[in-house]
Amino acid sequence: MxxxxxxxxxxxxxxxxxxxxxxxxxxxPTNADAPPPHIxxxxxxxxxxxxxxxxxxxxxxxxxxxxxxxxxGMKVYTMNCSACHGTLDNKRSPLEHSFYPPxxxxxxxxxxxxxxxxxxxxxxxxxxxxxxxxxxxxxxxxRWKVTAFLSHLEKLPPAVQDYWKKSFGAAPQGTDxxxxxxxxKGKEEKH
Length: 191
Ligand code: HEC
Hints:
This protein is an all-alpha fold. It has helices at 2-24, 38-55, 67-80, 82-85, 115-124, 140-151, 158-168, 174-178. The protein has a domain at 64-168: Orthogonal Bundle (Cytochrome Bc1 Complex, Chain D, domain 2). The chain contains 8 helices and no strands. The radius of gyration is 21 Å and the shape is elongated. The protein binds heme C. Heme C binds at residues 48, 80-81, 83-85, 99, 101, 103-104, 111, 118, 121-122, 126, 129-132, 134, 146.
């Protein structure tokens, strides 16, 4: 029994020291411009969702999704988010693949998470990725407005769509674009 316990302790020690040596001797890649392996992506996304489920308060948006609030959300998005998540003239961000994991392009692939999840992700950021926490940079109201904008991307009222077209010279893509070949998440190709 004593030998068994010793064996377990030594194995754990070797693994920990091995991991440390791997990192400290410079074998761990730190570049962000590489596509994460499929399995890593799956585990990380599931861990992220599980952590959100555990930590994020189930709050509802205190602001109604009026035309004005959605248009304000669009402005907040353009000013703060579009550089990484894609601009409203329907262009993918040139930085899309400069993050590890890549930044989702919301115009082509609207988020399908509930608002409490989006609000928490926007407010607190996502650790080990390029997603900043916005709670110090944007007011609570602006964070809720941009949350509403993102969660309504596929169902924006006509007046908000008109504002989008007038301001950016392009029509919101929402659902239409997702049905086009090559536009769904799994098959997305590097541009
Ligand atoms: C500097 C680049 C950058 C900026 C600016 C940025 N993001 Fe992100 N964002 C990222 C990256 C990279 C990810 C991918 C993280 C991941 O896969 O979990 C991400 C992920 C997200 C997610 C998904 C989180 C989840 O749970 O999967 C949401 C929602 C989001 N961003 C919203 C926003 C909003 C709203 C803004 C503006 C207020 C913004 N982001 C600004 C880089 C950025």
